[in-house]
Every structure is written in C-alpha cells, then in structure tokens.
UniProtKB/TrEMBL annotation:
<dbReference type="InterPro" id="IPR036412">
    <property type="entry name" value="HAD-like_sf"/>
</dbReference>
<dbReference type="InterPro" id="IPR023214">
    <property type="entry name" value="HAD_sf"/>
</dbReference>
<keyword id="KW-0119">Carbohydrate metabolism</keyword>
<dbReference type="GO" id="GO:0046872">
    <property type="term" value="F:metal ion binding"/>
</dbReference>
<dbReference type="GO" id="GO:0003824">
    <property type="term" value="F:catalytic activity"/>
</dbReference>
<dbReference type="InterPro" id="IPR041492">
    <property type="entry name" value="HAD_2"/>
</dbReference>
<dbReference type="InterPro" id="IPR023198">
    <property type="entry name" value="PGP-like_dom2"/>
</dbReference>
<keyword id="KW-0479">Metal-binding</keyword>
<keyword id="KW-0460">Magnesium</keyword>
<dbReference type="InterPro" id="IPR051600">
    <property type="entry name" value="Beta-PGM-like"/>
</dbReference>
<dbReference type="InterPro" id="IPR006439">
    <property type="entry name" value="HAD-SF_hydro_IA"/>
</dbReference>
<dbReference type="Pfam" id="PF13419">
    <property type="entry name" value="HAD_2"/>
</dbReference>
<protein>
    <recommendedName>
        <fullName>Haloacid dehalogenase-like hydrolase domain-containing protein Sgpp</fullName>
    </recommendedName>
</protein>
Length: 281
C-alpha cells in the first residue's frame, strides 16, 4: 500500500483564515441530542471488542476518522456563515460546531442552520461550503496517526473493509485519494445514495450487504455521535475516535471503546485478542 500523505502544515497564509488559525479544542463535554440505541451486543462492555470475533470486516467513516478534517469544515462554515450574517454576523465557535454541525448530513444542516431559506437555496449554500472545504483540504490534510499501520494489519489479515460517509461524493473521493487509500477500500458507501443518512443505519446496512459480512463479526471506526448511532443501529460495535469530540460524548452515544488515534495500546490489545482467541486458523 502506498505511503499515506502527511501534509502537516497549518496553512497560516491561507486567505480564508481571517483570524489567527487554530484547531478547535473539542475536549470539553458538550450535551448532544442523541442517545445510544439498544442492540443485541454489549455496549461499553469492559471496553472490549472480543464479542465480535471471529472478525470478518472493519468499516471506516472518513471525516475525522481517517483524517483530521473537522477543523477544515469548521473554518469553512465559520467564514461562510459569517458572510451571510448568521448569528448577527458573529462567527460561530467550536461549541456551536460540535452541537449543531458535526456529523450531520447537508440536507439536515439546511434545516438546522437555514430554516427560513428555500431548500434549493440552502443546498446551494452547502455546495459552495463543500467546495471551500475541498480547496482547504487540497492544501492541508492530516491522516490520523497510526492509520498506515492499521491499514497494513487489515490487509495482512485479509479482512474486508469499506468506507461509509455522510460526505458528498466529491469530498469522499478527494480525501481517500489524498490519503492514497483508493486501493484499500473494497466498497465506498455514500449516504446520499441511501434512503436515509447517518444517524440512521442505512449506509452501514448497505456496506454490510455489499461486503456480505455479518454485523456481529464486524465493527466500525467512527468519530461522531451520529455515526456511532448509525453503526449501533445496524447491529455493529463502534470504536469512537476522539479526534475532536469528547470521549464521554462518544461513550454515551454507544461506543464500545474510545481511542485518540490508531497507535493506542488498548486498540491493539483488543485487535490482537480478537485474532488470537477466536479467529479461525
């Protein structure tokens, strides 16, 4: 597998950043309007993935899970909403982004952010926002630390894998291409091609069907409450990626365990335990 792209600059000269650039500090616990769904497998079960063995597949969200893209979405929304006079012209902050934007599909965001606009006009705003995001992403994209090693581990074991995202096709394809993961994923599922986006389970159910794997032998990497809710609703365990959202928020949503990146020892302890104890030889 090709080496992952690792552009780590903070693009301080980018003209879109009218204030001093910074990555939002999403470490504080923020109330969120979702709760963990019921399921047939244990939630937060001793922070263990052992119940998914024998492991057949791993599914990945893209934004915030493969790469640390939430700050770029935040910058784009902050500047564009300010330009249209949202919140009386005051820029949104990271708390607002977490509570009202992160993990949501663009059609839902039209209703959340621009309820008084005609839907077509609001969707055009979202299209322009995504174009701005892609311009920013083309200049800077940071993969989650340890992703390359995890992808190699998945490939070496011959596990099936899919990317499942609420992002538009152009965004998903750009990020996967910049991370050199075009040949890694067997299936890419876009929420816009499903009847309902995350937090509904439809995108993950479509991925399971495409890969022909059982939900109780598959788990998901997700960074958002809506994504964890979707994975749980499809009958799968979720590993929460606390790249920007607080650990407690992800656990409360139903994540079985939460990690900061793919280098965390507790992740590898779980993966190796699943393989050693129950994966057929």
């Amino acid at each position: 597998m090709p080496a992952l792209a690792t552009s780590l600059h903070l693009f301080p000269n980018n003209p879109i950043l009218r204030t001093k650039p910074y990555f939002p500090n999403f470490s504080s616990t923020i109330p969120f309007g979702f709760s963990a769904s019921s399921s047939s497998y244990p939630i937060n079960s001793n922070s263990s993935l052992s119940f998914v063995a024998p492991l057949e597949a791993i599914l990945f969200d893209i934004d915030g899970t493969l790469c640390d893209s939430d700050p770029l979405h935040f910058y784009a929304f902050r500047d564009m909403l300010q330009e249209i006079g949202f919140n009386d012209g005051s820029p949104i902050d990271e708390d607002f982004f977490i509570n009202n934007i992160s993990g949501k599909h663009n059609e839902e965001l039209c209703r959340v952010l621009l309820p008084d606009w005609e839907f077509e006009k609001a969707m055009n705003f979202m299209v322009d926002k995504e174009a701005l995001f892609r311009r920013l992403a083309a200049e800077q994209l940071e993969p989650i630390s340890g992703l390359e090693n995890l992808c190699k581990w998945v490939e070496d074991l011959g596990l099936k894998r899919a990317a499942v995202t609420n992002a538009p096709r152009s965004n998903g394809e750009l990020l996967i291409s910049m991370l050199n993961l075009q040949d890694f994923f067997e299936v890419i599922v876009l929420a816009e091609e499903c009847a309902r986006p995350k937090p509904f389970p439809d995108p993950y159910l479509k991925a399971l069907n495409a890969l022909k794997v059982a939900p109780n032998h598959t788990f998901v990497f997700e960074d958002s409450v809506s994504g964890i809710k979707a994975a749980n609703g499809a009958g799968m365990a979720a590993v929460g990626m606390a790249t920007r959202n607080p650990e407690k928020m992800l656990l409360d949503a139903g994540a079985t365990l939460v990690i900061k990146d793919y280098n965390e020892p507790k992740l590898w302890e779980n993966l190796e335990r699943v393989v050693k104890e129950k994966l057929p030889l």
